[in-house]
Amino acid sequence: MLVLEDQFRAAGSSFVVISGRRRSGKTTVLMQFMRRHPNSLYFLARKESSSRNLVYFRRAAADFLGRDLGPASDGDWNRTFREIVSRTGGQKMVIMMDEFQNIGQKDPTFPAVIQYIWDTVLKGAHVMLVISGSSIPQMSAQVLEYGSPLYGRRTAQIMLGQLSFSKCSELYGAKSAWDQVMFYSVTGGVPKYVKTFGGYRDVYSAVEGTVLNPDSYLYDEVMASLQSEVTDIGSYASILGSIASGHRKLQDMADDLGLKQTGLTNYLKVLMDTGLVERDVPVTDDDPFRSKKGLYRIADRMTAFWFRYVYPHSDLLGRGEKEKIMNIVRSDLPFDTMRSAYVEICTEKAWDMASEGSWDLIPDRIGGYWGKDVSADIVGIDYGAEAILVGTCVCSESPAGPEVLEDLRDVGGRLMSVTGAGRVEYVVFSISGFEGEWPDDVDLVEGV
């Protein structure tokens, strides 16, 4: 919101691009901004032709101006914008075009139309143009990339990502640390999902009341979102299902799907471009793109949950036997999905602690490590101090005891050899606290 306010107060015209996946809060941000600045025209682009969208845009403009602009046949996009600008009365106005990419998908020349309008009409007219969209690849191609006619025109760019766990925990309400991590393991940081789940007493009732409830928007949310991003939805669903079931290496995925690795790479690139999938590498790898230890991961937690627990059991859901699915969720969620979420939360916490000076090192990198004989949840590397931080994340309903240190120190010694570090510091995160006597050279972090 601060970026939008700065752009509104800037002298002259401004051109802001907002992008982010579905449910990331783009439209909410625009509506809040409109309430602050009533001299704003909002338009939601449809998945129709440019000419049909012009009809809708002129209607929205007529409502905004308080007078009829006549049928679309009486004007084109250029003339319509000129008519809107001519009635600003010297006061800065805001024109918002939400889901902009919908028009460009139907008419590839549309970004060039808007480029011409910006250069000849809006740039010198004391106007703030805001373009937003939820398809990240399309927004990049149509607005942000070098080959786009609109490249270089924007005065500000906002990428709306997911909320951090600390922000989500405020929305979950008065719940225990255990329950908060359980909720986050399903919702991730998508604001809409977090708010929806926050109204339930526990994660199981939330899943049953939303994801498995035909009357809830979350019932078909994942597939609808996927369908808005890709065309061959069956192939992409198969790949996401394979990753969700634990096949994170490219070769394992190919074997699971009965395909060659080369047949998967293009699909995976598209999924990574949309932000649905990420490729993790050990924190020690200096060249992530060439790393042979890459593991693919579904970055959106709701999508990961759905493809792990719902997609493989669609037949049960179709027969109305959702209790069988719930039994699978109850037996698996706390031991796999929840733990990966807790490691993510602890990594976020480790960065915060590092910035607060909690250790005698300042990590250049923090991430996970895995190799043939050793793995670690959290490794921080300070190249300047030739030191490393090694941590483990205990996700259990029981307090962690000092017995975990034997393995942790062994991992630390091995990683000193891997990294060439001269010393190591240790940290243990435990969602349920600690018991027993612990040495002073280990930092203990309880809860979340």
TrEMBL record:
Domain of life: Archaea
Chain ranges of the ATPase domain: 11-196
Domain DUF234: 306-393
GO molecular function annotations of the record: ATP binding
Family annotation (PANTHER family): ATPASE (PTHR34704:SF1)
Protein name: ATPase
